[in-house]
Amino acid sequence: MSPHTTSSPQLLDVPSSDRTHWLELPAHRSSVSVARRSMSARLTTWRLPGEVCADAVLLVSELVTNAVRHTLSARVLCGIGLVTEGYLRLEVHDHGRPGRGLPRREPCLDDEGGRGLLLVEGLADAWGVDRSRLTGGNAVWANLTV
């Protein structure tokens, strides 16, 4: 499996393509670790604080996991962009049915899953779901202060 990377600022409103990183992956569980490694490497080259990098990688991991597990997508598109010196944007686009919304779960203490969006909500300054102009599915995004 080889990911496809590109530096397209089409979705992230970033003035410079060297401040964005895009990765297209098959919608397989193994793609989550590929996304984490790729995004971590890019964030490191941008010399962002370690805590911001760790939070961003965790957010990408959760968003890609949701796209892989909860949509019928064949591929997912992940993007990160350093919008300004103080603002990082993460996006994961899938081919799922738009408009379904994300189900709210209240996991029990012994549940192994169901906490992904709770993590996203807790770590991100803002997050949401829009219709993807690229895939026609969902674009789940999160913003972090650098």
- Label the structural class: alpha+beta
Strand order within the widest beta sheet: 1-2-3-4-6-5
General shape: globular
Percent of residues in β-strands? 25-35%
Topology (elements, then pairings):
Blueprint: E1 4-6, E2 20-26, H1 30-45, H2 50-70, E3 75-84, E4 87-93, H3 116-123, E5 126-131, E6 138-145
Antiparallel strand pairs: 1-2, 2-3, 3-4, 4-6, 5-6
Helix pairs in contact: 1-2, 2-3
What's the short version?
The chain has 146 residues and is of the alpha+beta class. It has helices spanning 30-45, 50-70, 116-123, and strands spanning 4-6, 20-26, 75-84, 87-93, 126-131, 138-145.
Structure overview:
- The chain is of the alpha+beta class.
- It has 3 helices and 6 strands, in the order E-E-H-H-E-E-H-E-E.
- It has a 6-stranded antiparallel β-sheet with strand order 1-2-3-4-6-5, covered by helices on one side.
- Helix 1 packs antiparallel against helix 2 and helix 2 packs antiparallel against helix 3.
Please supply descriptive tags for the structure shown above.
146 residues, alpha+beta, six-stranded antiparallel beta sheet, 3 helices, 6 strands, 31% helix, globular
